[in-house]
Amino acid sequence: MTESFAQLFEESLASQRIKPGAILTGRVVEVGPDVVLVNAGLKSEAVIPVEQFKNDRGEIEVSVGDDVEVALDSVEDGNGETRLSREKAKRARTWSRLEQAFEKQEIVKGIINGRVKGGFTVEIDFVRAFLPGSLVDVRPVRDPSYLEGKTLEFKVIKLDQKRNNVVVSRRAVVEQEYSAERSELLEKLQEGAVVKGTVKNLTDYGAFVDLGGIDGLLHITDMAWKRVKHPSEVVTVGDEIDVRILKFDRERQRVSLGIKQLGNDPWQNIARRYPTGSRLFGKVTNIADYGCFVEIEEGVEGLVHVSEMDWTNKNVNPSKVVHIGQEVEVMVLDIDEERRRISLGIKQCQSNPWKDFGDNYNRGDKVSGQIKSITDFGIFIGLSGGIDGLVHLSDISWDIPGEEAVRNYQKGQQVEAMVLSIDPERERISLGIKQLAKDPFSAWIADHPKGSIVKGKVREVDAKGAIIDLGGGVDGHLRASELSRDRVEDARTVLKVDQEVEARFTNVDRKSRTIALSIKAKEIHEEAEVVSNYRTNETSAGTSLGDLLKEHIGGSQDN
To answer: Where on the phi/psi map is residue 534: left (φ > 0), alpha (ψ -120 to 50), or beta?
Structure first.
């Protein structure tokens, strides 16, 4: 009884000395599917859930006989059993290590396992810490997904166990590493050298690459010789890549990098490989309002301007002609090696309807078509091959002014016309409607030799002269100075509208299509004839020359 009482007394004292939260060393007695039995030298063995002994892969980390650290939850619960916790023991040890790391500025390891407002959560052996977004790296990181799930190094910058608050910084570790690596790297960096780096961050204008202590900028224009819309087409965050150092500013510690410079420049000798006028196949890579871009070889793109896509539609929608990825035949129109620009044409690889029309029709041929449009300067007629010919206002009618004659036509009307000229280079075809009929002006000139006496009726008259209707839509011009040998100040004192006159046809201007008339010239000519006849007949007649002239003048005035 005495020994039993002494034993109970010792156990009671031991129980009083050990308080909840204390870290004890116990031995694994049994490992079951759901629980682990641990003897920590207390009143009873403790049952701990097996989950507290599993690692990240779900494997049980202990076996029977292993010594493990556990935390005392309570000496006796409501059932008189001792409650221990393996998880709390781990957490307590972690807090102890965190306190030491905080005091001595040591590095701890943890895993970024989630995102929260303003940053990320980091798991450090059962203790959750907070990593502010600004302390992830030395540069702002837009997409830190490549860091998630990885074991990384951190420094503890704030610690409060009572509030369960731990703040860590990866940036502090990176800066410490960079300061050492940067010094070594700066010694080795040289323009033109090829180095390895890791893509850290992407922007719209390029990517930042960690060279191991210093970041370099890989601009989007230096990623590939071909057009790159966004850096993500070439690299992704976390990629390890080879880059060439293009520029290095030691003083400002700025490095410009390039990937495309690792290979040969495809633009070298481009004009020799693709001479102007050569035809080749390429792939459509981009479509814009002003045309499309066609890749003719890796890294070399040319522009097909919208005006070079279709012979007949100069303002066609490019997306209605081609689509991205389509293989098209193009002709090289121009190359500017210095500005790295190539002008290409699609329509030049197709039949030219303007040239075809010139091959099939000659000047003077008759054509027919539908009126496509009527403008201030003429009528456009649709022709074969989808092209248009222009009938200028001046070529609509011989006798009606163009502005008036065009009113007799309307859009959609089928008309005939004559080919006047063809210019395939300027893509112009001139047509004429009036040329289908005989030119009344030319016909009149043919029927009336210069110097002949003609008759007409006054159509218009003003002080300076009159317009004489000679018939058939032909007008003659009679100036006031040509009305008489006597001076006439105002033609209206001599002539009236609808008055019939006789005059001599004195001149013609085919370019301006004007016929000059003269009553004065007619009278002078007739007087000369009278004199000539008098001389011929003076021996046989008793009439004097004066009488003959008076008779002639009187007759003329009667007319």
So the answer is: alpha
What homologous superfamily is domain 356-436 in, according to CATH? Nucleic acid-binding proteins (2.40.50.140)
Please say whether the beta carbons of 225 and 260 come within 8 A: yes
Tokens encoding 255: 């490095």
Homologous superfamily of the 105-174 domain (CATH) = Nucleic acid-binding proteins (2.40.50.140)
CATH of 189-262, one of 3.10.270.10, 2.40.50.140, 3.40.50.1970, 3.30.360.10: 2.40.50.140
What are the phi and psi torsion angles at 400 (to 5°)? -110, 135
Task: Identify the CATH assignment for 270-349 out of 3.40.1180.10, 3.30.1450.10, 3.40.1080.10, 2.40.50.140.
Answer: 2.40.50.140
Per-residue CA distances from 220 to 62, 203, 208, 216, 228 (Å)? 54, 9, 11, 13, 7
H/E stretch holding 12: helix 2-17
Dist. CA 225–CA 246, nearest whole Å: 15
Q: Are 387 and 429 in contact (CB under 8 A)?
A: yes
Distance, CA of 518 to CA of 516 (rounded, Å): 7
Q: In 80-205, at which residue ranges do the beta strands (DSSP E only) sit?
A: 83-85, 107-116, 119-124, 127-132, 151-160, 165-169, 194-203
Residue 269, classed as helix, strand or coil, is coil
Cα–Cα distance between 479 and 475 in angstroms, integer? 13
227 close to 283: Cβ distance less than 8 angstroms? no
The beta strands (E) that lie in 239-377 are given as 240-249, 254-258, 279-288, 291-297, 300-305, 327-336, 341-345, 366-374
pLDDT tens-digit readout, 385-439: 889 999 999 999 988 889 999 999 999 999 999 999 999 989 999 999 999 988 8
pTM recorded for the entire structure: 0.50
501 neighbors 458 (Cβ within 8 angstroms): yes
Least confident of 71-80, 366-375, 407-416, 517-526: 71-80
189-231 pLDDT, tens digit each? 888 889 999 998 899 999 999 887 788 999 999 999 888 889 9
Structure tokens at 85: 């916790």
Strand ordering across the sheet containing 46-49: 46-49, 35-39, 23-31, 67-74, 83-85
Q: What topology is assigned to 440-526 in CATH?
A: OB fold (Dihydrolipoamide Acetyltransferase, E2P) (2.40.50)
Buried b (16+ CB within 10 A) or exposed e, 69-98: bbbbeebeeeeebbbbbbebbbbbbbbebb
Residue 540 clears pLDDT 50, i.e. is over it: no
The angle, 0 to 180 degrees and rounded to 10, between the axes of the packed helices 519-537 and 545-558 is 150
